[in-house]
Input
Amino acid sequence: MSPPSLHRPPGSWLVRQLTRVVPRSHREGWRDEWISELSHSTLPPWRLRLRAMGALIDALWLARHHGSWALDSTRFAHDVRFAARSLARRPAFSVIVVLTLALCIGATSSVFSVVESVLLRGLAYRDLDRLVAVWSNNTKESKDRYDVSVGDYFDWRDRAHSFEQLAGFFPTWNAAYTAPDVAERISVGAASANILRTLGVQPQLGRDFAAGEDKRGAARVVILSHAMWTRFFQRDSAAIGKSILLDGQSYTVIGVMDPSFTFPRNRVDVIVPLPILGSYIERRGVHLLSVIGRLRPGVTIESAHREMESIAAQLRIEHPGEDAGLASTVLPLADDLLGNVRRPILVLFAAVCAVLLIGCANVANLMLSRVMSRQQELSVRTAMGAPPGTIARQLLTESALIAVVAGILGVGIALVATRVAATVLPESMTQIGSVHLDARVLTFTVGVCVVVALLCGAAPAIRGARRATHLALPDAARGASRGRAARRVHSTLVVTELALAMILVVSAGLLINSFSRLTATDPGFRTHGLLRMKLELPDAAYRRGKQSDQFFETLLREIGALPGVRSVARVSRFPLHDGHLTSAILVDGMTYTDKDRLPEIEYRMASARYFETMGIPVIAGRPFDPMDTADSTAQLVTIINRTAAVKFFGTPNAVGKRLRFGGPERPPFTVVGVVGDVRQISLREPAAPEVFISTRQGLATAGSIVVAYEGAPGPIVASVRRIVTSLDKTLPVYDVQSVEDVLSKAAVGDRFTTTVLSAFALLALVLAAMGTYGVIAFGVAERTREIGVRMALGAQRREVIGMVVRDGMRLFALAMPIAFAGIWWSNHAIATLLYGVLPSDLPTQAVALATLAVATAAACLIPARRAARVDPTIAIRS
Amino acid sequence: MPTTRITYPTAVVLTALSRGCRYGFEIMDTTGLASGTVYPILRRLEEAGMLSAKWERMADAHDEQRPPRRYYQITGAGRQTVRDAMSRFPALSAVRPPGATPSPT
Output
């Protein structure tokens, strides 16, 4: 045999690494032969490296035929069979352990699938890090994400150099889609022609919008979502070039998006160029667009921000009226779009990881106890010559087998859970990405299983092996300190479990408290027996004014006559549901300079009886009445809410004051009534100043019909549809909801986070109690003799029970300081999710900890009572 | 002595050895077979007694300032197998002596 070579030809590194794979008997010769061949060869280095790769196959061949592998594979099969038999001998133990882990793994994978599909994969736009959201920044009302006006958008687009593309869009438009046998409202994303180029995506079929197709008067074109194409065109590629009717206008289909595409901020059925917004885009002062920019390579967000600031400054000078007080904000798009959902998802992910850790600690404890109870078997095996390594390996194989079975079950649980999640997840999450299990989630699950196997198996394996060695020595089994070390491991694990459970239970307590406050919030209107539905009169068929008024008058009269209907009215936008729209307001008698940005006010059009139908109290003056018409003889009237009255007039009784909307040149409206505040935007946000105009004076042709009713809503909805059809059979009634639906939807995100986190906290509580039970029961079993002696010396049953429960509560006390550090951190994490309750809310935390303390004490009581039943004579003799 | 299955690549390696190839890389250069194919075949054939291997003398290698090489030589059993294989795989006659056709890896 030759001496080791000093040569290091190309490829020799790989060969040296592979040497370890080769069986010891062949190792040296094998390495020398390969190194020698590589150093003799005159081939170029890359070809030598390529040849060296063949050494892998050579080495594996030798390992397979001469090495430990041949042995290893049979030994592995043997270990697995052994582990399976050993688990099957204790079915109760195995079932509990496997189910605990399956539940934890399934929950973790499910939450990860949400993390993956929403946070990691959700925004499938090219070079996401170069995409930014650009907002107006209303410094006057300190709104830093203020919708951009159409005029500003076009000026920005013309002037800014930081962006390759700057797209403006309105994500929540809708239109009536009509085809033979179809009359439906569909959701429309109205966008500038460069929207897809900005996002870096292409239609799957057909073409993108061409530049200029977003100009007024350009040919009307539309790009379909994949869902729309599937639903109405059965995925027929002949859809390209066809015409579809939107709001009675014909649009040519030019493209179809692929299924993974999500329109920013809303799931839309079609994308249509901006002119579909009609007159909205003609007025500079209307703030309705979202803007996304693609930064040029090398341009930072900060420099883009600086450029936009200087453009905003120019625009303030050029348009002193509309642009007064407007600055501009540039934010990373990912932060902007995921901002609302990132935190709840990450909080849930952290929670589920904690549950997984608790589950692992529990299982590790159970397995540790089991190793203890198997000391006989293990010591016999050691005595017969099994090396400690073998015993450790077999114990690890057991936990690996448990992890594999639990993993398979866990994937099943996750499959079901993600199906359910897809239906209960708040829209804010699902509109970003559809949740399902995919290869990445499965890879994650496999990783979790490996970690689980190691976490659960390591401690028992090490202890089992060590113990087996000790026990081979005579009398060691009776040592007084026999269980002390083991008990320490047990206790550490249980303290960890309890600490994690405390954090989860406190967080859940805070969220539950916050959620109950949120749902108990008085929205300011009727919360039962109220229906809303949408109806829109097409401008083409009904002239605004007399004709539409007449239609609605007949409609409301007929609905009002239905049995069970208490009152009916209409409103342009239903609070908490239809988003918000503001108007600039001028109070008569105050002077405004050009530089001032006029204050904005929530703006709704409502019919007579709206306040009665909604159950909104009239605080001063009167509600609208049928005489408030657009006739030249009628006075222009308005009703404001209490907040507006106090803000603008300093008193709730503002009847008789006058207001103008939009500008000083507009006609004045006289305040005839003041009504109670209503939460308009969300349950969390207090009422903003709001103004109502009569539907007849505001000429509304769209909006919600609201019906206050008694009895069952079903027949009323059916009757309303019948009445509408009898008046005009082309009009769809859509978006029918009870007020309970509206309120429930307004809290859907909070409900989801609260429910899921509470479920995790409950699971954590049960697991931690189980863990405590396990370690206390183990302690009682170990101390049977001691307890017997105490009882023989006169200890009372009550004292024994107290002693055991105290042991358990000591663990609880030990867990508290650790938990407090965690609770401090978790309170920070959930602070923004809370409503009406501070993260430091002591009563909530106390109740949560007390709940866990009771559960822990209950878990200790079972072994404590067993300890109290110990018969001293038997215990001492044993 | 263990028997071995004579596949076409096995026959090619044996033929190359019978035509004068003496070490692994030379067989690859001559036959165009990959290293991951040739070496396991050499191991198998050595075990089956169809070839023998020996290390180059230290002194010879030392003189040339390089590590010694492992040389393979076909045995009688190997030659018999080549003759049998020739009738099964006529294409084997295309295997040339070393140096005749340098081939890619």
Summary: Residues 333-373 of chain A form the longest helix (41 residues). Chain A touches chain B through 27 residues (CB under 8 Å). The radius of gyration of chain A is 36 Å. Residues 1-6, 472-481 of chain A have pLDDT under 50 and may be disordered.
